Input
Amino acid sequence: MEEIKFTDGLAVVAEGGIPQIYSLIMLQLLALIRLPKLRTFCHQENSVTNTLFNQKVTFLSFGILEIVGIEKCRKIWHDKLTMGSFNKLTYFEVKYCDKLLNVLPFDKVEGLEKLETLRILECELNNWTF
Output
């Protein structure tokens, strides 16, 4: 599996220059485990970066995120995330993701005020930015 595509159960919103934002309004837990070919959660035309979550996706009720064994991804979050995309995240675990350049861009830290647990295991990160 290289990407995840979805069409049902979404709220589609237009916001400042971004034509569509897909809001997964009921999703509370997401576990992406042993998907070595996964490159992105929401496909974006002409994208050259290997970013798992781009600016097109928001998770409004999201509490738990587990990312394990994703080998193609270099970044988890896009540099231009929509405000409130992950602000309810309480538990975040990254394991066996050796291609990651960083876990979290420094300017996104303030958006994770509810984060209680951050676990990073067996990752050869090039940049330990939190």
Observations:
- The longest strand covers residues 18-23.
- Residues 9-15 have pLDDT under 50 and may be disordered.
- Residues 25 and 65 are 15 Å apart (CA to CA).
